[in-house]
UniProtKB/TrEMBL annotation:
Domain of life of the source: Eukaryota
Protein name: Glutathione synthetase
EC number: 6.3.2.3
Positions contributing to substrate binding: 233, 467
Cofactor note: Binds 1 Mg(2+) ion per subunit.
Known role: Catalyzes the production of glutathione from gamma-glutamylcysteine and glycine in an ATP-dependent manner. Glutathione (gamma-glutamylcysteinylglycine, GSH) is the most abundant intracellular thiol in living aerobic cells and is required for numerous processes including the protection of cells against oxidative damage, amino acid transport, the detoxification of foreign compounds, the maintenance of protein sulfhydryl groups in a reduced state and acts as a cofactor for a number of enzymes. Participates in ophthalmate biosynthesis in hepatocytes.
Family of this protein: Belongs to the eukaryotic GSH synthase family.
The protein's annotated pathway: Sulfur metabolism; glutathione biosynthesis; glutathione from L-cysteine and L-glutamate: step 2/2
Organism (species): Parnassius mnemosyne (clouded apollo)
Binding locations of Mg(2+): 383
Enzyme class: ligase
Gene3D superfamilies: 3.30.1490.50, 3.30.1490.80, ATP-grasp fold, B domain, Glutathione synthase, substrate-binding domain superfamily, eukaryotic, Glutathione Synthetase, Chain A, domain 3
A Pfam family annotated for this UniProt entry: GSH_synth_ATP
Positions with a binding annotation for ATP: 321, 379-388, 390, 413-416, 442, 469, 475
Amino acid sequence: MSQARLASCIPLPLEHKLLVTVIEKAKDWALMHGVGMRDKKHFTKDSIQIAPFVLLPSPFPRTEFDKAIELQPVLNELMHKVAHDDEFLEHTLQNALQVDEFTANLYDIWIKVRQEGITQPITLGMLRSDIMLESRCPHTVNQCAKHTPYCSWKQVEINSIASGFGHLGPISRDIQSYILRQLGHGDLIKNMPENHALSGLCSGITEAYDLFGVPTAVVLFVVEEVSYNICDQRFHEFEISEKRPDIQIYRKTLNEIYEETTLNDKKQLIFDGRPVAVVYYRSGYEPAQYPSTREWDARLRVERSTAIKCPSIHYQLAGTKKVQQTLAAPGVLEKFMGSSEATKKVRDIFTGLYSLDFDESGERAVDMALAEAERFVLKPQREGGGNNLYGAEVREALLRMRHSRERAAYILMERILPPLVSGYVVRPGAPVPPPVSDLVSELGIFGVIIGTKDKIHCNRQVGHMLRTKLADANEGGVAAGLGALDSPYMLDL
């Protein structure tokens, strides 16, 4: 059976001369509007190159897009409840903690701050639910003709360090709108949904700042030692500075936080003589493990403080893959959400998620994956791409880990088979024009939630982003050079 396919928004291929001209214009537009990243091979702070982008917006069914938008506040509240359920987190993570050093270190910090007493009950959650269309129908052996070219959408994961693409998501719509106008198809722009992810995410930070209630306080953005995704990061700062010039923002690494901050007797985190209202961990700042004790000590200092964290340590634990796999087990969602229509909707978006613990269900999952490795993805606890294993790698890893406790650090997820779409991917340094390629897309829906264990101050969906990759590529991270910026083009099927 061939893979299902969605039609491009305009017929392809484009005429060669027109294609070359439009791409050259689009590259210049990209550089002049912040669709860029620093070059990893030839890094310098004095220049950027274009971020990879898809020339034309990718089709996405309007009904499914609307469902995902509507469901995001429900997922926000679910994650908020999970993050504040100490007993559930302890029970769910107990096996993974024995074999995953990074998660164990996070957990140790969580235990320490709970024992000492939580100094800041308010949390800021900036979440992103990543989803893909599923072209296979679970109710039939073959593809269900009723649903061609897709059956439903399924959640890939939900991220708690998730504000990446707050700028690049909306600007993708802008560059593709420019391209459509250049091609004489400006009338199609109306089918691309508005995207206010940047202002929506930044509003979460400013609302948390106001809840902190100290006018002289500052905001810290925690960044990598070397930042490649600089446009996306800086535009968050620019947005806040424009809307709220009273808020001072500083970019600091964890090493710099260790060196330049202190805790006063009120447990305020003090930077440059001023209290810190919000500590915001930039998307992408999650190495396999913090390489130095100083960085872990800085993370502990932040958690002990009165600063509002995004994410807090318990929010980050709630974002682990083991928690997401457990939520998909029978009866677990009902514990947090009751037996409601919303619960059914959330359960419907889960694809197959399986524990690899040393019990009967874990053994069944291992046997299932060894028999049909191509059906599955092996995922570690950490967020983001680049760490997952696919196909033959799944079999090799499970054969190696079958009798090792190491396997409990992973979960097994059924692969999603999205419909294909034809398109052009424009990359820095690549020949122009690129070939028409088969592509698949992953949609991310952003949400903001602020509250304590007992009271939610705000909860809303704030925007979206679309990443697209070659259909035969496993990972799709744009910053890693594997995926490309894109935006959805609404289809009424």
